[in-house]
Amino acid sequence: MGSSPPDTRANARREAIARLREAGIESAVLDADLLLAYVLGIRKEDVYAHPEPVLSADERAGYEGLIARRARGEPVAYLRGWKEFYGLEFAVDPRVLIPRPETELLVDETVRRLAPLDSPLICDLGTGSGAIAIALAVALPRARLIATDSSTAALEVARANASRHEVRERIDFRAGDLLAPIHETLDAVVANLPYLTSAEVDAGGGTSIEFEPRAALDAGADGLAVIRLAIAQLLARPAPTDIALFECGPAQARSAAAELGAAPGVRTDIVADLAGRPRVVVAMRVAARR
Ligand SMILES: C[S@@+](CC[C@H](N)C(=O)[O-])C[C@H]1O[C@@H](n2cnc3c(N)ncnc32)[C@H](O)[C@@H]1O
């Protein structure tokens, strides 16, 4: 951003958009507006409604710093420190994956199928920021949850988010490998586990995944390594689980459904997103392999 006076919101915004466009950021206008609103502590709409005020030296320096980081590819969610998911605000930082809008389909399906139950015990595997577990706890006020993650750093973020949304007492956060820390009989298992191939993660430069924890993304050569492990653990449990829902990449959904469906008595279903891509694998009456 140059030093051309006057330093109004409108001018700062224009210079920031030009800088982000130069850096190849596709969402340059939106990001410049979101970050200006963040620095000024105002709503995005007020950036356009009141373009005349002059930025203070601190505001200008803060904005320039954020625009420089955004130009290097850092996601807006990490720069602002929060992301909206399922109508709730979640604190996020590089310890956790930024919750994705497509994961709302998994939450919707789970809420729809579990709403008739009185007080289900639900497990969220690989909880990250806690987005799924917390959204479920808010949407299903009588549900109890156990949320696991192999990253203790991620669990710190998740616990803080649960406290912020006043559902901390209904979610038991446990560190460990998928279902390993759980000995209770569960009504439901939900999971958005890593499902990118290692090659996709390696090629992820220029997107937010470059800044997100690799352990939240990388699922080996075929993108199924972690989901496959979760399915194996689920099928090895002594008591059946009524329903399991896994978010998958469109390329993995059919294979995951086939692995679950191969167990005796398990019925599977695949839910597609609005674009018709298979995204959520649902399995009913998931019982131990005989
Ligand atoms: C794709 S992120 C999803 C985070 C969150 N569920 C969401 O939807 O925003 C996957 C999460 O699974 C965790 N994870 C990966 N492998 C795991 C394992 N073997 N056991 C437990 N958690 C694991 C990662 O640390 C990460 O937090």
CATH architectural type of the largest domain: 3-Layer(aba) Sandwich
Are any ligands bound, and if so which? S-adenosylmethionine
What is the string of helix and strand elements?
Answer: HHHHHEEHEHEHEEHHEHEE
CATH homologous superfamily placement of the largest domain: Vaccinia Virus protein VP39
Instruction: State the end-to-end distance.
Output: 66 Å
Tertiary shape:
elongated
Work out the helicity level.
25-40%
Oligomer: single chain
> How many domains make up the coordinates?
2
The helix count comes to 11
Number of strands: 9
CATH topology of the largest domain: Rossmann fold
Task: Give the integer mean of the pLDDT values.
Answer: 94
The percentage of residues in β strands lies in 15-25%
Low-confidence runs of at least 5 consecutive residues: none
Radius of gyration: 21 Å
Largest sheet properties: 7 strands, mixed
CATH class of the largest domain: Alpha Beta
Strand order of the largest sheet: 5-4-3-6-7-9-8
Fold and architecture overview:
With 290 residues, this protein is an alpha/beta fold. It contains eleven helices and nine strands. The strands form two sheets. A seven-stranded mixed β-sheet has the order 5-4-3-6-7-9-8, with helices on both faces. The protein is elongated, with a radius of gyration of 21 Å. The structure holds S-adenosylmethionine (SAM).
